[in-house]
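[recover] target loaded
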């Protein structure tokens, strides 16, 4: 009977090249504030990761879901007005 000796293969990788970040101040993160319609007080601030001047901001679906969670999952809609009759209702695509 012949004995077999197992020799594992060793893979040696080179170290990754590390590039230092430029010496600039980091971009200032913008926020979108949502106010409660009944009293006008701040309800929620979300970081505007989709911000691209002069347009952009917060993903609509994310904003609606976050606001609904804070108001005990009651359905609602964003509005530019405190009037509940819908004169300031924002009709925006879900995405």
């Amino acid at each position: 009977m012949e004995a077999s000796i197992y020799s594992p293969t060793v893979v040696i990788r080179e170290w990754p090249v590390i590039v230092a970040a430029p010496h600039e101040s980091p971009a200032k993160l913008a926020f979108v504030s949502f106010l409660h319609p009944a009293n006008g007080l701040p309800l929620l601030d979300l970081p505007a990761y989709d911000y691209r001047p002069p347009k952009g901001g917060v993903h609509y679906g994310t904003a609606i879901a976050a606001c609904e969670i804070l108001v005990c999952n009651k359905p609602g809609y964003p509005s530019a007005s405190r009037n509940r009759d819908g004169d300031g209702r924002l009709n925006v695509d879900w995405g």
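[recover] notes: DSSP finds one helix and two strands in the chain.
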